Protein backbone atom coordinates (compact mmCIF):
# COMPACT_ATOMS: atom_id res chain seq x y z
CA UNK A 1 0.00 0.00 0.00
CA UNK A 2 1.50 3.36 -1.01
CA UNK A 3 1.52 6.51 1.07
CA UNK A 4 -1.25 8.15 -0.95
CA UNK A 5 -3.56 5.18 -0.50
CA UNK A 6 -2.86 5.05 3.23
CA UNK A 7 -3.52 8.78 3.56
CA UNK A 8 -6.82 8.38 1.73
CA UNK A 9 -7.86 5.59 4.08
CA UNK A 10 -7.07 7.72 7.10
CA UNK A 11 -8.89 10.90 6.07
CA UNK A 12 -10.80 12.52 8.96
CA UNK A 13 -14.12 11.12 7.71
CA UNK A 14 -12.65 7.61 7.68
CA UNK A 15 -11.25 8.13 11.14
CA UNK A 16 -14.68 9.20 12.35
CA UNK A 17 -16.07 5.96 10.96
CA UNK A 18 -13.32 3.97 12.69
CA UNK A 19 -14.10 5.63 16.00
CA UNK A 20 -17.82 4.98 15.55
CA UNK A 21 -17.27 1.30 14.66
CA UNK A 22 -15.19 0.46 17.74
CA UNK A 23 -16.99 -1.70 20.26
CA UNK A 24 -15.20 0.11 23.07
CA UNK A 25 -13.24 3.34 23.38
CA UNK A 26 -10.49 3.11 25.98
CA UNK A 27 -9.28 6.52 27.14
CA UNK A 28 -6.07 7.65 28.77
CA UNK A 29 -6.46 10.52 31.28
CA UNK A 30 -3.53 12.94 31.72
CA UNK A 31 -2.91 14.84 28.50
CA UNK A 32 -5.68 12.98 26.69
CA UNK A 33 -8.86 13.94 28.53
CA UNK A 34 -7.39 17.15 29.94
CA UNK A 35 -4.08 19.05 29.90
CA UNK A 36 -3.24 18.17 33.49
CA UNK A 37 0.53 17.66 33.39
CA UNK A 38 1.25 21.30 34.20
CA UNK A 39 -0.97 20.98 37.26
CA UNK A 40 0.80 17.77 38.28
CA UNK A 41 4.12 19.62 38.01
CA UNK A 42 2.91 22.44 40.24
CA UNK A 43 1.58 19.91 42.75
CA UNK A 44 4.94 18.13 42.92
CA UNK A 45 6.72 21.44 43.54
CA UNK A 46 4.25 22.38 46.28
CA UNK A 47 4.84 19.00 47.93
CA UNK A 48 8.61 19.44 47.78
CA UNK A 49 8.32 22.84 49.45
CA UNK A 50 6.04 21.51 52.17
CA UNK A 51 8.41 18.60 52.81
CA UNK A 52 11.40 20.95 53.12
CA UNK A 53 13.16 19.71 49.98
CA UNK A 54 15.09 22.15 47.80
CA UNK A 55 13.75 20.46 44.67
CA UNK A 56 12.02 22.31 41.84
CA UNK A 57 10.80 20.83 38.56
CA UNK A 58 10.67 23.38 35.76
CA UNK A 59 8.91 22.61 32.46
CA UNK A 60 12.02 21.15 30.84
CA UNK A 61 12.90 18.96 33.82
CA UNK A 62 9.36 17.65 34.14
CA UNK A 63 9.16 16.88 30.43
CA UNK A 64 12.21 14.64 30.81
CA UNK A 65 10.85 13.03 33.95
CA UNK A 66 7.60 12.14 32.17
CA UNK A 67 9.58 9.45 30.32
CA UNK A 68 9.40 7.65 33.67
CA UNK A 69 5.78 6.67 34.25
CA UNK A 70 4.31 7.01 37.72
CA UNK A 71 4.66 9.84 40.23
CA UNK A 72 6.48 7.83 42.89
CA UNK A 73 8.81 6.49 40.24
CA UNK A 74 9.59 10.03 39.06
CA UNK A 75 10.47 11.10 42.58
CA UNK A 76 12.95 8.23 42.87
CA UNK A 77 14.35 8.90 39.40
CA UNK A 78 14.93 12.57 40.19
CA UNK A 79 16.65 11.75 43.47
CA UNK A 80 19.13 9.61 41.57
CA UNK A 81 20.09 12.58 39.39
CA UNK A 82 21.04 14.77 42.37
CA UNK A 83 24.59 15.22 43.57
CA UNK A 84 25.09 13.71 45.99
CA UNK A 85 22.38 11.22 45.10
CA UNK A 86 19.25 11.23 47.24
CA UNK A 87 17.87 7.81 48.12
CA UNK A 88 14.43 8.07 49.67
CA UNK A 89 12.88 5.06 51.37
CA UNK A 90 9.65 3.65 49.94
CA UNK A 91 7.64 5.01 52.91
CA UNK A 92 9.20 8.47 52.43
CA UNK A 93 8.39 8.43 48.71
CA UNK A 94 4.83 7.32 49.46
CA UNK A 95 4.41 10.11 52.01
CA UNK A 96 5.78 12.71 49.60
CA UNK A 97 3.49 11.44 46.87
CA UNK A 98 0.49 11.70 49.19
CA UNK A 99 1.36 15.36 49.78
CA UNK A 100 1.55 15.86 46.02
CA UNK A 101 -1.86 14.20 45.54
CA UNK A 102 -3.40 16.55 48.10
CA UNK A 103 -1.97 19.59 46.32
CA UNK A 104 -3.15 18.22 42.96
CA UNK A 105 -6.72 18.00 44.19
CA UNK A 106 -6.54 21.55 45.55
CA UNK A 107 -5.17 22.91 42.26
CA UNK A 108 -7.72 21.04 40.15
CA UNK A 109 -10.54 22.50 42.24
CA UNK A 110 -9.07 26.01 42.16
CA UNK A 111 -8.53 26.13 38.42
CA UNK A 112 -11.64 24.20 37.36
CA UNK A 113 -9.64 22.08 34.93
CA UNK A 114 -11.61 21.56 31.74
CA UNK A 115 -11.67 18.67 29.30
CA UNK A 116 -9.69 19.13 26.11
CA UNK A 117 -11.67 20.26 23.04
CA UNK A 118 -13.74 17.46 21.56
CA UNK A 119 -13.54 15.14 24.57
CA UNK A 120 -17.03 15.84 25.92
CA UNK A 121 -18.56 15.46 22.46
CA UNK A 122 -16.64 12.20 21.91
CA UNK A 123 -18.00 10.79 25.17
CA UNK A 124 -21.52 12.03 24.49
CA UNK A 125 -21.57 10.62 20.93
CA UNK A 126 -20.12 7.29 22.01
CA UNK A 127 -22.79 6.83 24.66
CA UNK A 128 -25.51 7.80 22.17
CA UNK A 129 -24.21 5.10 19.81
CA UNK A 130 -24.23 2.53 22.59
CA UNK A 131 -20.45 2.16 22.66
CA UNK A 132 -18.63 1.02 25.76
CA UNK A 133 -16.28 3.51 27.43
CA UNK A 134 -13.32 2.63 29.64
CA UNK A 135 -10.28 4.30 31.20
CA UNK A 136 -6.73 2.95 31.19
CA UNK A 137 -4.25 5.26 32.88
CA UNK A 138 -1.01 5.42 34.81
CA UNK A 139 -2.30 8.00 37.28
CA UNK A 140 -3.92 7.07 40.58
CA UNK A 141 -7.60 6.43 41.16
CA UNK A 142 -7.81 9.47 43.44
CA UNK A 143 -6.34 11.72 40.75
CA UNK A 144 -8.88 10.47 38.21
CA UNK A 145 -11.69 11.22 40.65
CA UNK A 146 -10.35 14.69 41.46
CA UNK A 147 -10.20 15.59 37.77
CA UNK A 148 -13.39 14.04 36.44
CA UNK A 149 -15.55 15.06 39.39
CA UNK A 150 -14.77 18.65 38.34
CA UNK A 151 -14.47 18.27 34.56
CA UNK A 152 -17.45 15.93 34.11
CA UNK A 153 -19.69 15.24 37.09
CA UNK A 154 -19.56 13.65 40.54
CA UNK A 155 -21.24 10.61 38.99
CA UNK A 156 -18.66 10.30 36.20
CA UNK A 157 -17.96 6.64 37.01
CA UNK A 158 -21.41 5.73 35.70
CA UNK A 159 -20.18 6.60 32.19
CA UNK A 160 -17.39 4.03 32.18
CA UNK A 161 -17.69 0.24 32.18
CA UNK A 162 -14.14 -0.15 33.48
CA UNK A 163 -11.65 2.21 35.14
CA UNK A 164 -8.13 0.85 35.55
CA UNK A 165 -5.49 3.05 37.18
CA UNK A 166 -1.76 2.70 37.65
CA UNK A 167 -2.19 1.49 41.22
CA UNK A 168 -4.46 -1.37 40.04
CA UNK A 169 -1.75 -3.27 38.14
CA UNK A 170 1.78 -4.57 38.66
CA UNK A 171 3.50 -2.60 35.88
CA UNK A 172 2.71 0.84 34.48
CA UNK A 173 2.84 2.04 30.89
CA UNK A 174 4.63 1.31 28.55
CA UNK A 175 3.82 -2.15 29.94
CA UNK A 176 0.41 -3.29 28.64
CA UNK A 177 -0.99 -4.21 32.07
CA UNK A 178 -3.68 -1.51 32.35
CA UNK A 179 -4.99 -2.32 28.88
CA UNK A 180 -4.93 -6.07 29.45
CA UNK A 181 -6.90 -5.53 32.65
CA UNK A 182 -9.44 -3.35 30.82
CA UNK A 183 -9.87 -6.03 28.16
CA UNK A 184 -10.36 -8.68 30.84
CA UNK A 185 -13.04 -6.60 32.55
CA UNK A 186 -14.86 -5.66 29.34
CA UNK A 187 -14.65 -9.01 27.55
CA UNK A 188 -14.15 -7.28 24.18
CA UNK A 189 -11.62 -8.50 21.59
CA UNK A 190 -8.64 -6.14 21.52
CA UNK A 191 -8.89 -5.39 17.80
CA UNK A 192 -12.53 -4.34 18.18
CA UNK A 193 -11.55 -1.62 20.63
CA UNK A 194 -9.80 1.71 20.09
CA UNK A 195 -7.40 3.33 22.54
CA UNK A 196 -7.04 7.10 22.65
CA UNK A 197 -3.65 8.22 23.96
CA UNK A 198 -1.29 11.20 23.88
CA UNK A 199 2.17 9.68 24.50
CA UNK A 200 4.58 7.15 23.06
CA UNK A 201 4.45 5.18 26.32
CA UNK A 202 0.67 4.99 26.03
CA UNK A 203 0.94 3.97 22.39
CA UNK A 204 3.34 1.15 23.29
CA UNK A 205 1.13 -0.02 26.14
CA UNK A 206 -2.07 -0.25 24.11
CA UNK A 207 -0.34 -1.66 21.03
CA UNK A 208 1.31 -4.38 23.12
CA UNK A 209 -2.18 -5.36 24.29
CA UNK A 210 -3.29 -5.60 20.65
CA UNK A 211 -5.48 -2.49 20.70
CA UNK A 212 -5.31 0.00 17.78
CA UNK A 213 -4.34 3.49 18.96
CA UNK A 214 -5.45 6.98 18.01
CA UNK A 215 -3.11 9.72 19.23
CA UNK A 216 -4.35 13.15 20.30
CA UNK A 217 -1.22 15.32 20.62
CA UNK A 218 -0.76 17.04 23.98
CA UNK A 219 1.45 19.78 25.39
CA UNK A 220 4.21 17.64 26.87
CA UNK A 221 4.31 14.81 24.32
CA UNK A 222 3.82 16.56 20.99
CA UNK A 223 7.26 15.52 19.70
CA UNK A 224 7.01 11.84 20.70
CA UNK A 225 7.50 9.15 18.07
CA UNK A 226 4.01 7.90 17.21
CA UNK A 227 5.04 5.31 14.64
CA UNK A 228 2.50 2.51 14.66
CA UNK A 229 -0.47 4.65 15.64
CA UNK A 230 -3.64 4.30 13.60
CA UNK A 231 -3.66 8.08 13.24
CA UNK A 232 -2.48 11.27 14.95
CA UNK A 233 -4.67 14.34 15.43
CA UNK A 234 -4.12 17.64 17.23
CA UNK A 235 -7.55 17.65 18.87
CA UNK A 236 -10.45 15.26 19.12
CA UNK A 237 -12.70 17.92 17.60
CA UNK A 238 -11.42 16.55 14.27
CA UNK A 239 -13.27 13.30 14.95
CA UNK A 240 -16.65 14.36 16.39
Question: Could you explain the architecture of this structure?
Answer:
The structure is a single chain. With 240 residues, this protein is of the alpha/beta class. 47% of the residues lie in helices and 10% in strands. The protein contains ten helices and six strands, in the order H-H-E-H-H-H-H-H-E-H-E-H-E-H-E-E. The protein has helices at 3-9, 12-21, 37-50, 59-65, 71-81, 90-111, 119-129, 141-151, 177-186, 200-208; strands at residues 24-27, 132-136, 162-164, 193-197, 213-216, 231-233. The protein has a six-stranded parallel sheet with strand order 3-2-1-4-5-6, sandwiched between helices. Strand 4 (193-197), helix 10 (200-208) and strand 5 form a beta-alpha-beta unit. Helix 3 (37-50) packs across helix 6 and helix 5 (71-81) packs across helix 6. The radius of gyration is 18 Å and the shape is globular.
Tags for this entry?
disordered N terminus, 240 residues, 10 helices, single chain, globular, six-stranded parallel sheet, alpha/beta, 47% helix
Amino acid sequence: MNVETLSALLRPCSLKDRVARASALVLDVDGTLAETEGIHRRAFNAAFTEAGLDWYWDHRTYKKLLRTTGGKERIQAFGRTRYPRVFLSDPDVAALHRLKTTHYGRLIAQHTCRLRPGVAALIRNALARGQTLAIATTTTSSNIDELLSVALDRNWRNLFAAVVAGDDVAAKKPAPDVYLEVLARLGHPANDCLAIEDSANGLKAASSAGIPVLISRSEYFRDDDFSGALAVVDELTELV
